[in-house]
Queue: 4 jobs
Job 1
Amino acid sequence: MNPGEQYLRAAVASSAVVIGDYSTSFSLATRMMPRRVRGHVTSIYGLVRVADEIVDGACHTDPGGHLDRLEQDVRAALRDGFSANLVVHAFAHTARTTGFGTELTTPFFDSMRSDLTPAPHTAQSLAQYIHGSAEVVGLMCLRAYVSGVAESDYERLSPDAVRLGAAFQKINFLRDLSDDEIRLGRAYLPELTRDAFEVALRDAEADLRAGRAGITRLPRDVRRGVRTAADLYAELLRRLRIAGLDGARSGRIRVPTTAKAAVLVRSVANR
C-alpha cells in the first residue's frame, strides 16, 4: 500500500468513528452498503456531522469562523485532492471520485451558516434550508451509488434522492423539537399547533413514501442499505405520531436499540 492509499484509509476510518459515535442509525445503514459505496457514504456523513457539530454547540468560540474555515478546507481539497484534516480529505476524495463539487457543497454550507443566526422560517426559507441541509446530501450519496455502474441514471434518479433527503430532515425537525427550541433557539416549524404537527407528520410521510418508492430504481447492490435507512426513519416517524406534539416537545424521540435491530432484520429479509 502506497502512502496515499494508507492516508486515505485512515481518513475514511476517522469519518467512520465520527458517524459511529453520533448516529447508530446511519452507522447501521452504512454497514449494509456494498464495499464500493460504503467508504464514500461514510465520508459524506462524516463531513456533514462535523459541520453540524460546529453549529450545534460543540464549538464554543467563533463557530462562524470555524465553519468558514471548514468550507475553505473543503474547497481547497476539492481542488487539490488533499487535506491535513482527515474528514475533509475523505470527503474530497469521494467528491472527486464520484463527480460532485461546489454545486452541492455551497448550498450545504449556506444552510449550516443560517443555523448560527436562527430566525423563524418562512415557507421559502425553510425549503431553501432543507435543500442545502438534506437534499444535496441525498444527491451526494446518489453520486456514490451510481458511480461506475449507472452514472447516466443520475438525473433520472435525482428526484427520488431529493425526496428521501427531505423526508429525513423533516423527521429530524420533529424529533429534535425540544433541543432546537429550548437549547438552540431555532424555529424550523414556527407556531406549531397540534394540527400543524399532524400536517408536518403527513408532509414528511409523503416525502418518505415517494423516496422509498424510488429505492427499487437504484443499483441493486445499494438498495438494502438505503432501505434500511428509510425503514429506520419510518419507525421514528411512527413513534413521533404516537408521542404527539406534547411528547415531541418533552424530549427527543428515539428508536431503541432493540427496535433498530428488528428493523435491520426486516430490511435484510426483504432484500
Job 2
Amino acid sequence: MSTLDGKTALITGGGRGIGRAIAIRLAGEGARVGVHYGTNADTAEQTAQLIRDKGGDAFTVGAQLGVPGDADALWQAFDRHADGLDILVNNAGILGGRIPELMAYAMSKAALDSFTATLAKEVAPRGITVNAVGPGTTETDMNAERLSTPEGRAAIAAQSPFNRVAQADDISGVVAFLASDDARWITGQWLDASGGSML
C-alpha cells in the first residue's frame, strides 16, 4: 500500500516545473491528482497523461487565479472531477507586472508564510496540517533565464553547500513527506528546502 492511497490532491500550477514534479510524486505515492492550470491546458494535460502512463489517476482543473471569482471557479472546476479534497498544494506562482519581478515574488511568498501560520491554528481542530516549503532557486522554466549562462548557473549553485542547482524532484519529495501521515505533527511551519542556501 502506498502512503497516499485513497487520497485526492490538487496541485495549483501543476502543469510544469515544481508543480509537475509534485503532481507526479504524489500520484506515485497513490494519490488521485488534480493538475491545475491557469492558461496552459496543454502542459497540464501532458502532466496528467504522464501520471496516467505510469498507472496513476489524474485529471486537469482549469481556473485563472488572481482574478475576481477565482476561488469559486477553481472549486467548481475541481468538483466536476472529485467529491472531496485531502491534499492541497498551493504551488502556482508568477513573476512580472510593474513591480520588479523578484520583489513581487518575495512579497507574495511572505504573505503565504503569514497565511500558513494563521490557517494552521484555524484548521488544527479538524486534524488538518498547514505548512509552507521554501525551495530556493530550482531548475524550472521560471528560472531559465537566470540559469542560461555558465556564470549564472555557477552563482546559483554556489549558494548551496551541495554546490548544485536544485531539481524539481528535490522539492517534490519534501512535499510528499508533508502530505504523508508521517508529518502529522508538523503544522504552521516554513520548511527551508533550498539545499542549505540560507546557511
Job 3
Amino acid sequence: MPPSPLMGGGRWFIDDVSHSIAVKHNNPETARKEIDGFKGFAKHVLNSKPFELDMSGHGYHWWQQMLSIDQLDTLKKVNSPLLIIQGGRDTSVSPQKIDEMMQRLEELEKNNIEYRRYDAFDHGLKNSDGKSLRKEVVGDMNMWLKSKIGDPEKHKIH
C-alpha cells in the first residue's frame, strides 16, 4: 500500500462527538445533558436492528458503522506508512483522545505511523485569527510523502 496522510480523530467516534458537543456549550450541565442524549442515541443504534433514520443527513448504517469502528484496532493493522494530522484547537474531534490513541500506538511500537499535531490550528486548519494554513499543512504532507516514496522522477517510465 502507498503511504497515506489522514486527518485525526480519537479511537471512538462517540468521544469525538461528545467533545464537539462539550466545546459548543458554555454551560457544563447543558453539555452533559446533550452528551447523555447522544450516548442514548448511540446505544440505541448499536443495539437495534436497522431502522429508518435521518440524523445530520446520515442513516442507520452510517451511524452504526461510525459508532462501531475502533480506530486503534484499525491503525494497529496498518503496515504502510501513515501520517496523521491533528489540530490542537479542534472543536470537531478531540485532540486529547487522539493524543491518547497515538501514545497507545507508540507503546505498541507502531513505527510506521507518524503524528503531526498543529497546536494553533482548528479542524479546518485555520489559526485563531481564522486564517487558513492548509497550504502549509499540505506542504508538510508533500514533504512527508516525498520522504516515503523518494523522487517521483525516478519512478517514471521513459
Job 4
Amino acid sequence: MIPSGSRVLDGMLLRPQTDSKASVLILHGIGERMSYWHEAQEMLARHGIASLIFDYSGYGKSTGATTPENLRQDTLAAYDSLRALLPGSRPPLLLGLSLGTGVAIDAAPCLIPVPSGVVLCEAFSSLREAGDAVLTATRLPGFAIRALARLLPDVYRTAESVRQLTSPLLIVHSDSDELFPLAMAQEIFAAAREDSERRAELFVPRGFAHNDAYLNPTLGYWQPILDFLLSPDEALKWPHGTHRDPGVF
C-alpha cells in the first residue's frame, strides 16, 4: 500500500531472485489494472529488473478521484516508495503505456532524483488528439468526433512537454497500433530531438497491437526496452536522431 496525499494506492512490487540490476516504475493505461501486467513484470524479473506497478487513484482498490493532479502526486509517491524499497540502487526508470506515457512525461520533471531513463510505449501527442484518434477508430461522423474531442481536457500534451525531459528517452511504437498512429510517436521523437544534447531513440516493432506490451509480452517488443532499462546510456550510443528499422524487431 502506497500513501499518496490523503489517498492510499494499491501496488505490486516484483523483484528478481538475485540482486536487481535496475528498477522501473510502470504507469499503466486507461481502463487497465495493475494485475494485467503480471506477465510483463515476470519477464522483467527474469532479466534482473525489479518493477513496481500501482493502480491510480480511483482505480481498483486505490482510493480517491482520478484527476491529472492526483495522478501526478500518485507517480511521485510511487517513485519514492520504489526508491525506499530498493535503497542504494541507481534512480528508477519510468515506463508508461498509453495514458501512462502522458502521466510519465507530466511527472518526470518533478521527480527527485531525476529518473535514470523514461520509456514511452504506444504514446499519444496530446490527450485531445488521443481522444480524436480513438473516436475516429469507432467510425463516428466527423462532426461528432470534433464535438466529443473538445470535451476532453487539454492536458498531457506530450509532444510539447517532452522538451522539459532531461532523462534518456526511449519511444516504442508499433506500426500496427490500432488506436494511436505511428505519426504521434514520430512527433514526440522530433520534439525530443530538437535539443541535440537530449538522448532519445525511437523503435518501431512490427505487427503488435496497442496493448500487446502486457497482453503478449515477447522479446520482439520488449528486447530494446530491456536493453534500455539495464543500461540507458549504452543503449543510446548509436548516432543521435536515428531510429531502428521497423524490420529489426
